[in-house]
Structure formats: structure tokens, C-alpha cells
């Protein structure tokens, strides 16, 4: 969408938000649609830049993929083994489309995936696991060529680290492989369980998703279905942190609090009142916000790495010190420079962000350097006195649909300022012919 976000801080947030479907679930689900015969429909999908990129990848592979209102339908029969390179370099999740293409066509040509610059994000776990399933890998510069001359076959694979992306890739490969695959050391995130639920709905046989050992009986064919992706626990975390930073009372519905429980527990320790139900949470902050001491992210069910910058933004408004260490990515806190522009007393030491209290954050201009860091700058701006401008908002659009409107409906003074059309871009009106 583009354009800068203009925020006047100091206004408490009040109201109710129904949390949309999770970007981190929708992207692997769209890749999984390649395995299905017939038309797959995904219900109530948020219109995000990364979702549009996934649709572009499907279309580039020869599939029919289109928006129908707020749903996406996919006829996932590919006609080419090449993933569009420009789209693939746009987001890291493009690697997820490789296993389904291998299952369908026995070959895939792509480029090393892109994404936010938050640290090393190698795909070696994806490739080493696929190699155990009969895949040959060759790199030619930035090109990645994968072939499965004898097809995919089941294997007993142990991941050295519970990578979400690698777990998803190998789960997709195993669903269409010959025989049984046992995946040990698997990621346990709820998005993995959502992907497994979809595959099972389509006739797959996945057991153990949500635990560290997943067993998959490969199926020759998967069928079509309609599927509603799970709610976005990171969007819920963002709004919870925004309420903690700005003050007020916000009710978040449609998202199970257990999926982001560590963040809610920390906000409660910082002085927020947190009330939870089966699929809702109410965050209230009326008094002072306190520091959280030392906090760490980790693999699920620990505090999510994506939530780290968002929680850090809330910590800026606290009356005592906090520190937060991200154990997953070494450059998670690229937002620290933006925090400093608001007058925050922050220091990055390795993977740790140290935060000391200041009397009041002040409105400033800050640049989003990545997706979650960009959203964190918005959270900080909501707590700052005066007017702020957040630039490079394309990063934010990758993971938040209608972010400004969502916050405005809670009472935030926020608007998107679109860039003015340059003189060279303006169209000269055509003269009417007599």
C-alpha cells in the first residue's frame, strides 16, 4: 500500500478487535494447496502483501489462484517447475513452495528466498531434510535447483533446531511422499498444527503436530476442502502491547490466549490487568506500567521471537528498567534506532535490548526496518507525546491488513499519508476531438 503513517500519541485505546487469520499460517497453507486435486478455498484471509506474493507464486507456477471477496481459491495443478524469481526474493516463505512442486513435478527451480533483514535465516535444515527424502540439490549462483528423480520417499529425520519453516517444508514433502516419515525435533508452534489440520482435512495422515515428534503417512493424492486458518497470535500480541503502551482497555476476540500466553503473563507482571476466556483476552492498563526485568524469547511455547520488538515498545513506557533477549535472530532489534528517535534510553548488546526508563517519549520520525520492528515503532508512537511519522511502511503491510484503521477504531489518532503523485507520473488529460 505504501505511504507514511502519521500518529499523534497520548490517546488511550478502548474497544474490541476481532483478530484476523494468521499470516504465518496462511502462507504455508497456500503452498499446501499445490498438493491438492480440485479447488481449495481459504476463508477470511487478510489482504497482506505476503499473501499477494504467495498468490503470485502460485499463478507463476501455472496454478489458478484468485481472491473471491475475502476468500482465496486455488486450483493447485502446476504446469511449470519454476518459481517466479522476483516474487521468491520478496519473502522467505517462498521456500515452502518447493516441496509441493517437487511432489507434483519432480523438479523445482527457484532463488534463495528473501525476507526481513533480522539475521541469518539459512535454508540448510530444509535442504538436508529433503535430501533424506530423495531430493538432489544444486546451487548455481543465486539459483537453487532441486530434483527428485525417484520421487519423494519417507524418512526418519531429526532436526538440529526446531525450525518452523523447516518443519513446514518437511511436513509438506512427507504428506505426498511414499511411505512413512518421522520428523523428530519438530517445531511445536500452533501454525504447524494448523497446517497438519488442513492436510488431514484433505485426506492426509499427520499425527503428533504440536509435539516434537510428527509422524506422516504419505498419500498419493490429497483432495480439496474449505478451510479457515487460525487467528494471528502476533497481531493479537501487537494490540495487547499497544494497549499496554498507550493505556486503556482493549478486548481481543477470536484468538486463543494460550497461543500468546507468555506475552500476556509479562504484561500482567508489568501492571496490566489481563482477563482471558477460551478465545478472548481483555487487556486493561489504567495506572503506571512497570519494567519487566529480564525477558527471553524462545521456541514455542516460550515468548515468540516475533513478539520481542512489540513487547520492547511497551517496555519503553515503563517506569523501571527492562531487558529482552532474542535467542532466535541476532538482529531482531533493528527498531532500536527508531526507539532512540522517540527519546528512549535503549542499548543493543548482541542479541539483547536494554531499556532504561525515561520521563516521556516524544513524537519523532522513524523508519521501519522490518515487519515486526515497524509495527513496534507504531506502538511506541502511540505512547509518545506529539506527532510521529513512520516511513517505509511497506514492511508493516506484509503482516498487518488495515493496521491504521484497526488502531483508529480503538481511538488512536493515526492516518496513512500517501505519497504525492510526482509531476512526471501525472497523466496529461487527453483533448476531446471535435
From TrEMBL:
<keyword id="KW-0963">Cytoplasm</keyword>
<dbReference type="GO" id="GO:0005737">
    <property type="term" value="C:cytoplasm"/>
</dbReference>
<keyword id="KW-0131">Cell cycle</keyword>
<comment type="pathway">
    <text>Cell wall biogenesis; peptidoglycan biosynthesis.</text>
</comment>
<keyword id="KW-0808">Transferase</keyword>
<dbReference type="InterPro" id="IPR050068">
    <property type="entry name" value="MurA_subfamily"/>
</dbReference>
<dbReference type="InterPro" id="IPR036968">
    <property type="entry name" value="Enolpyruvate_Tfrase_sf"/>
</dbReference>
<dbReference type="GO" id="GO:0071555">
    <property type="term" value="P:cell wall organization"/>
</dbReference>
<dbReference type="InterPro" id="IPR013792">
    <property type="entry name" value="RNA3'P_cycl/enolpyr_Trfase_a/b"/>
</dbReference>
<dbReference type="Pfam" id="PF00275">
    <property type="entry name" value="EPSP_synthase"/>
</dbReference>
<keyword id="KW-0961">Cell wall biogenesis/degradation</keyword>
<dbReference type="GO" id="GO:0009252">
    <property type="term" value="P:peptidoglycan biosynthetic process"/>
</dbReference>
<feature type="compositionally biased region" description="Basic and acidic residues">
    <location>
        <begin position="415"/>
        <end position="428"/>
    </location>
</feature>
<keyword id="KW-0132">Cell division</keyword>
<dbReference type="GO" id="GO:0008760">
    <property type="term" value="F:UDP-N-acetylglucosamine 1-carboxyvinyltransferase activity"/>
</dbReference>
<dbReference type="GO" id="GO:0008360">
    <property type="term" value="P:regulation of cell shape"/>
</dbReference>
<keyword id="KW-0573">Peptidoglycan synthesis</keyword>
<feature type="domain" description="Enolpyruvate transferase">
    <location>
        <begin position="8"/>
        <end position="406"/>
    </location>
</feature>
<feature type="region of interest" description="Disordered">
    <location>
        <begin position="415"/>
        <end position="434"/>
    </location>
</feature>
<dbReference type="GO" id="GO:0051301">
    <property type="term" value="P:cell division"/>
</dbReference>
<dbReference type="InterPro" id="IPR001986">
    <property type="entry name" value="Enolpyruvate_Tfrase_dom"/>
</dbReference>
<protein>
    <recommendedName>
        <fullName>UDP-N-acetylglucosamine 1-carboxyvinyltransferase</fullName>
        <ecNumber>2.5.1.7</ecNumber>
    </recommendedName>
</protein>
<keyword id="KW-0133">Cell shape</keyword>
<comment type="similarity">
    <text>Belongs to the EPSP synthase family. MurA subfamily.</text>
</comment>
Amino acid at each position: 500500500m505504501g505511504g507514511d503513517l502519521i500518529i499523534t500519541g497520548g490517546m488511550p485505546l478502548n474497544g474490541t478487535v476481532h483478530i484476523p487469520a494468521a499470516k504465518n499460517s496462511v502462507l504455508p497453507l497456500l503452498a499446501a494447496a499445490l498438493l491438492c486435486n480440485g479447488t481449495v478455498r481459504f476463508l477470511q484471509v487478510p489482504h497482506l502483501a505476503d499473501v499477494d506474493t504467495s498468490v503470485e507464486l502460485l499463478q507463476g507456477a501455472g496454478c489458478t489462484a484468485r481472491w473471491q471477496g475475502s476468500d482465496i481459491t486455488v486450483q493447485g495443478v502446476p504446469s511449470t517447475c519454476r518459481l517466479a524469481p522476483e516474487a521468491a526474493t520478496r519473502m522467505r516463505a517462498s521456500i515452502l513452495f518447493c516441496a509441493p512442486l517437487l511432489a507434483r513435478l519432480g523438479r523445482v527451480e527457484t532463488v534463495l528466498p528473501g525476507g526481513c533483514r533480522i539475521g541469518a535465516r539459512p535454508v540448510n535444515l530444509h535442504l538436508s531434510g529433503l535430501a533424506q527424502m530423495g531430493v538432489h540439490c544444486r546451487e548455481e549462483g543465486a539459483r537453487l535447483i532441486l530434483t527428485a528423480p525417484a520421487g519423494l520417499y519417507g524418512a526418519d529425520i531429526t532436526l538440529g533446531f526446531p525450525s518452523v519453516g523447516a518443519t513446514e517444508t518437511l511436513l509438506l514433502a512427507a504428506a505426498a511422499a511414499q511411505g512413512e516419515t518421522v520428523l523428530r525435533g519438530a517445531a511445536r508452534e500452533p501454525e504447524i498444527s494448523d497446517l497438519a489440520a488442513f492436510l488431514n482435512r484433505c485426506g492426509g495422515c499427520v499425527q503428533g503436530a504440536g509435539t516434537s515428534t510428527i509422524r506422516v503417512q504419505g498419500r498419493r493424492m490429497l483432495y480439496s476442502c474449505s478451510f479457515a486458518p487460525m487467528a494471528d497470535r502476533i497481531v493479537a500480541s501487537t494490540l495487547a502491547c499497544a494497549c499496554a503502551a498507550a493505556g486503556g482497555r482493549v478486548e481481543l476476540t477470536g484468538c486463543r490466549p494460550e497461543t500468546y500466553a507468555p506475552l500476556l503473563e509479562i504484561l500482567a507482571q508489568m501492571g496490566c490487568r489481563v482477563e482471558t476466556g477460551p478465545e478472548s483476552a481483555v487487556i486493561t492498563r489504567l495506572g503506571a506500567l512497570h519494567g519487566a526485568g529480564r525477558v527471553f524469547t524462545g521456541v514455542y511455547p516460550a515468548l515468540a521471537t516475533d513478539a520481542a520488538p512489540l513487547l520492547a515498545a511497551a517496555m519503553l513506557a515503563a517506569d523501571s528498567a527492562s531487558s529482552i533477549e532474542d535467542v532466535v535472530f541476532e538482529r531482531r532489534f533493528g527498531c532500536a534506532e527508531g526507539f532512540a528517535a522517540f527519546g528512549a534510553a535503549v542499548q543493543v548488546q548482541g542479541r539483547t535490548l536494554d531499556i532504561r526508563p525515561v520521563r516521556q517519549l516524544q513524537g519523532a520520525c522513524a523508519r521501519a526496518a522490518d515487519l515486526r520492528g515497524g509495527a513496534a515503532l507504531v506502538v511506541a508512537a502511540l505512547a509518545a507525546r506529539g506527532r510521529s511519522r513512520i516511513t517505509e511502511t511497506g514492511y508493516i503491510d506484509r503482516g498487518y491488513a488495515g493496521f491504521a484503521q484497526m488502531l483508529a477504531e480503538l481511538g488512536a489518532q493515526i492516518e496513512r499519508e500517501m505519497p504525492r503523485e510526482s509531476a512526471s507520473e501525472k497523466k496529461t488529460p487527453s483533448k476531446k476531438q471535435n
